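Worked example 2:
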Amino acid sequence: MRIRIENITADAKELEFAETADEINRILGQGPIREYQVEGPIEVAVSFYRAGMEALGAAEEKESLANESETHRLTGDLLLKQSSNAAEAQSCFQRAIEIARKQSAKSWELRATTSLARLLAKQGCRDEARTMLAHIYGWFTEGFDTADLKDAKVLLDQLSA
């Protein structure tokens, strides 16, 4: 599925009027990054998500954000599409992991750790990537048929080879 720039612009306008964290999460959660394919300049999508992150920061003081960790992870994934933003993406992944841990949200932590491990492996830090991913993967005792755990297992196997 492809998301057109017009959709991003409409979502960005909707963000301007969002008043609660739930509204912000709804807008960001259905945004174009989830599809991993954006038609048009990637810079527009990055701007949209940066605006979303600013809105999340403002809403953070008002209420708990259930999807905040995932929003940081998704932003990091989008930033990786711009090769010069690996450091900023890594920061997003680390923030996502930190938030997931505070919320005891192991599934969100697994997703963020998998993204960070993938980045670290590309940077040549395979041992660090494997160690951190094995730690969170080892926490799970069921659900191994889910997409997130399958993805983590495939990456762990690659890192162990």
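The chain has a mean pLDDT of 77. The helical segments are 5-17, 21-29, 42-60, 68-80, 86-102, 106-122, 126-137, 147-160.
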